[in-house]
Amino acid sequence: MSFKLDNLGWFYRGKMEQSATLSESLDHKIVYYMLVTCTVVGFLTVFARLIQFARLMLSLFVLPGKELRTFGQPSKTWALVTGASDGIGKEFALQLSRAGYSTLLVSRTASKLDALAAEIKSKYNTSTKILAMDFGANNDDDYAKLKALVDSLDIAILINNVGASHSIPVPFTQTEQSEVNSIITINCMATLRVTQLVAAGMVQRKRGLIVTMGSFGGLFPTPLLATYSGSKAFLQQWSTALGSELAPYNVQVELVQSYLVTSAMSKIRKSSALVPTPRAFVKSVLGKVGRTGGAQGWTHTSTPYWSHAILQWSVNAFVGPGNMLLLTYNRWMHKDIRKRALAKQARINGKKGL
């Protein structure tokens, strides 16, 4: 009996040791396959990032954009530019005129439009028409005048450049209602109304280019510029949807994303690697039509200026546009800008004795 029990004990001990060995072997296999999986996933992730970066470099520095003449013969067609009297809008008007297009210039100040038309005539000897209108007024009579001009011309290119922002960074709860109304009316309503007037003719002719100015303020949520940020985010969604609608009619829609450019709106006068002049920026826009640049993953969108494109790609690839750290940095930066702007205004008021 003792012999049988001893044999039985050895049997169970053997089974337990065998089970432990199998369990240990299974654990090793699981760890092995996890390591292999992580290695493969890591390799594919790095490989995908390298492919994306290569696409970015090709888009920015090698591959050309579509020729503007694709959208209409320069000597026979027109380009409409809103917000044409200053900065980026003025530069669009000048470069499109240099390319041979007649230009319809629309902005608020008639004297500035007259001066720009004279400059275009003397430099490029192309035709111009002007219409002074305040987009912030959202006046039906102004839009009726614009419609009459648009209907009489072959508009091949529309540049939706008119825009408004906050005078200084400001918390939303402290934003004047008039400023909120102005930003939404100019950035959103004006862009929609002008595009609706022009796009109908482009659809009928089955060709055209609609360029709308976006902003990193809409791409990355921007505290203390909340209304402006939201208005530009709206233009992103609207442009992408509109681009899909008009593509079957050979009408190309492109939202152009940008960081800062030296202009009256940005209040920056000195250019740098990250802040180009309007001339350099517009040259990149018109030279890269149809190329995404840094706006990978967004259809009907382009970030053509090289430093802006690399910045956008880097944020999207490694941080994420809605990341808490980025959002916190944005809030801190604009709080600091607001503080300095208020201090400057206080000094000015002090000198005036106010």
Overview of this structure, please?
By secondary structure, the protein is an alpha/beta fold. The protein has ten helices and seven strands. The chain has a seven-stranded parallel sheet with strand order 3-2-1-4-5-6-7, sandwiched between helices. The longest helix has 60 residues, at 2-61. It is globular, with a radius of gyration of 29 Å. The protein starts with a helix and ends with a helix. Pathway: Lipid metabolism; fatty acid biosynthesis. Its EC number is 1.1.1.330. It is an enzyme of class 1 (oxidoreductase). It is a single-pass membrane protein.
Please tally the helical runs, counting DSSP H or I stretches of 4 or more residues. Answer: 10
Q: Describe the sheet with the most strands.
A: 7 strands, parallel
Q: What is the rounded Rg?
A: 29 Å
Structural class, please?
Answer: alpha/beta
Keywords: Endoplasmic reticulum, Fatty acid biosynthesis, Fatty acid metabolism, Lipid biosynthesis, Lipid metabolism, Membrane, NADP, Oxidoreductase, Transmembrane, Transmembrane helix
Membrane topology: Single-pass membrane protein
Family: Belongs to the short-chain dehydrogenases/reductases (SDR) family.
Transmembrane segments: 30-51, 209-228, 310-330
